[in-house]
Amino acid sequence: MLKDKENNGVIYFDNAATSFPKPQCVTNAVVHYITQIGANPGRSGHKMAIEAGQIVYKTRKSIATLFKLKNPMHVIFTSNATEALNTAIKGVLKKGDHAVTSDMEHNSTIRPLHEMEKEGTISLSMIQADKIGILNPEKIRKAVTRKTKAVIINHASNVIGCIQPIKKIGKICKENGVIFIVDCAQSVGVVPIDIGRDNIDILAFAGHKGLYGPTGTGGMVIADGFDFKKIEPLKYGGTGSFSDKIEQPDFLPDRFESGTLNVAGLSGLLAGSEYIQKRKGGIEGILKFKTELQKYFIQQAEMFVPDFICYSASHLPSTDVVAFRINKFPISEIAQILSDKYGIMCRQGLHCSPLAHQTIGTFPEGTLRFGFSIFNKKEEIDFAVQALKSISEGRKK
Amino acid sequence: MKAVILFQSTNHAIWAENELKSHKIACRMISVPRHLSSDCGYCVQIDAENKEKAIDILTTNNIEFEKIENL
Ligand SMILES: Cc1ncc(COP(=O)(O)O)c(C=O)c1O
């Protein structure tokens, strides 16, 4: 059996949930902050507080560079992509507004929107993707009305990995004066994103997936020219600025960053973000590497694993995510055997996206999901294919 | 003589410090002098002779500041 000692002898294919392992520099940065710096950024004027503030600034700058954003103050840190999406959605939509979204969304988008619709605040149009998960921008154009305030779209599917034509959708939003909010939880660090070129107004990202930061990191990024006063804050509180006033500051990032930041997490996020941006080939190189792994797995599994069914379309623009099943074999059993017998970690079920599974025809059982990272190797995929082959053949006996 | 530049928040102060340093302007973060502001954070101290240059750099980078005062 393939044993990778560095990873505690496991093969980790659950990178779409959160990435593992993290680069050593990420661990070092977190340890350095906790043991050497420690202080609260932006609250006091002493040396340690300023050093903590430097880390936060550098992280903002690194994220701004990643998305080709000019003003680093337009990077708002949150505890995950979910908090960023909630801030954008609940902050932008007001009573009587109409919003457009799709059935490929994660529950972190669907649930706040559904809640606002249920309580009578907004009306909502759901755009259906085709069977392979792709959205037709023209359908979005048709759904936009005079009352439409925002369109919210998931850039890369956490279920099957498909990449949406966000630039085209964003153009339609621009033409109609509609705010375009993009969920980049899965695409950040995997697909090159240029917030201006891609016509994005607000995006949400996770720091703990493709950027290899610790869990508890993420953020909301607001386009350079966007009037951020159109977004109401989700939370109010201490910012270290304007402490003589009881009003929330009305400038960035303070407007949206109440409470002490997760500086330990951001230290790691900075290291992770630099790590992938400095990697040879950059983000384009990462996408190429990851889609090769995705294609390789699908091709090998289709060749060797009896009754293998793949739901990801690797001939279309896609990330590293693969959704699959072994025909009529309960997915929970397969995931259990992979973990217990083979040390292969993956996710099974609905991946917080019931509607996406309805679209691809795998609801309510869901699928198994592999998501690869820059640290995975073809040998690990070979091992997994052999494991799946044994599992599938074993059932037949 | 020294001068201090005050900002709306420490986020902007650090941003300014990084930009000024990258333009080779000597600067230092210090606690905000109480007589200048009620803020809890820090501000950027420079040599007073560099005031014009500093303002130039801040303006071209769209870094808003509250005030600049001689100490
Ligand atoms: C597409 C998508 N959106 C949002 C999220 C939520 O991210 P987080 O767990 O950082 O809140 C995830 C990941 O779980 C995701 O895959």
Give an account of the 3D structure.
The complex is a heterodimer of chains A (397) and B (71). Chain A has 397 residues and is an alpha/beta fold. Chain A has 2 domains: 24-278, Type I PLP-dependent aspartate aminotransferase-like (Major domain) (Aspartate Aminotransferase, domain 2); 282-396, Aspartate Aminotransferase, domain 1 (Alpha-Beta Complex), CATH 3.90.1150. Chain A has helices at 24-37, 47-66, 81-92, 107-118, 137-143, 166-175, 263-278, 282-304, 331-342, 354-360, 378-396, and strands at residues 11-12, 75-78, 98-102, 123-127, 148-154, 179-183, 202-206, 218-222, 308-310, 322-326, 344-345, 347-349, 367-370. Chain A has a 7-stranded mixed sheet with strand order 2-8-7-6-5-3-4, sandwiched between helices. Chain A has a 4-stranded antiparallel sheet with strand order 9-10-13-12, covered by helices on one side. In chain A, α5 runs parallel beside α6. Chain B is an alpha+beta fold and 71 residues long. Chain B has a single domain (2-70), classed as 2-Layer Sandwich (Alpha-Beta Plaits), CATH 3.30.70.260. Chain B is globular and about 30 Å long. The mean pLDDT of chain B is 92. Chain A binds chain B through residues 41-46, 49-50, 53-54, 56-57, 60-61, 71-73, 239-244, 249, 251, 253-254, and chain B through 8-15, 18, 29-32, 38-42, 62, 64. The structure holds pyridoxal-5'-phosphate. Residues 80-82, 106, 108, 154, 158, 183, 185-186, 206, 218 of chain A line the site of pyridoxal-5'-phosphate.
